[in-house]
Amino acid sequence: MDSLTVEDARAAYRAIRTAEPGGLGNAPAHDAATVGAAKLVAQLARLRVNVNATNYAGKTPAHIALERADRGVLEVLGR
After folding, report:
1. Rounded to the nearest 5 degrees, what angle is found at the Cα of 58, between the Cα atoms of 9 and 61?
2. Long-range contacts at 21-25 (CB < 8 A, ≥ 24 apart)
3. Burial level of 23, CB count in 10 A (0-12/13-18/19+)?
4. What are 3-23's pLDDT values in tens digits?
């Protein structure tokens, strides 16, 4: 997987900032999965951020990616 570019990070940040407000117990990887930011999920994993954390609904980022049928995020998560 390629490195996360500044453009990718900015696009993901804008998408996350315009998504539904927090309060769901989502970690950064959940938010990245919600907007389909596979490169950002990969970067978070490289930084040893817990990409398998569960939110208040018991969902992991992989659950979110599966619901969205997002193969890119699922591939990064090894699913």
Report:
1. 25
2. 24/55, 24/56, 24/57, 25/54, 25/55, 25/56, 25/57
3. exposed
4. 777 777 777 766 665 555 556
- The closest alpha carbon to 56, from 13, 27, 24, belongs to 24
* Cβ-contact 10, 39 below 8 angstroms: no
d(CA 51, CA 54): 9
pLDDT digits (tens, 9 = 90+) for 29-69: 998 999 999 999 998 898 888 899 998 899 999 999 999 99
